Amino acid sequence: MKKKTIYESADLLYHLLIVWSKLNIKLEDIAKELYNRKK
């Protein structure tokens, strides 16, 4: 189960990074959004 979850997570992250790259979104932008949500 753990190995499969790691495998699927890698795919998910890869595709997210591709989308973020095309939209010029940085990891910092996501981090800021998450920080603002917990205020």
Sketch the major β-sheet: none
Computed over alpha carbons, the radius of gyration is 13 Å
Sequence stretches where pLDDT stays below 50 over 5 or more residues: none
Q: How many domains make up the coordinates?
A: 1
Estimated helix fraction: over 70%
* Overall spatial form: flat
Number of strands: 0
Helix and strand content put the structural class at mainly alpha
Order of helices and strands: HH
What's the pLDDT, averaged over the residues? 97
SS field, number of helical segments: 2
Strand content: under 5%
Span between termini:
35 Å
Written description of the protein model:
- With about 40 residues, this protein is mostly helical.
- The protein has one domain (about 1-35).
- Helix content is about 80%, strand content about 0%.
- It contains two helices and no strands.
- The chain has helices at about 1-20, 25-35.
- The termini are far apart.
Give a quick summary of the entry:
By secondary structure, the protein is mainly α. The chain is built from two helices and no strands.
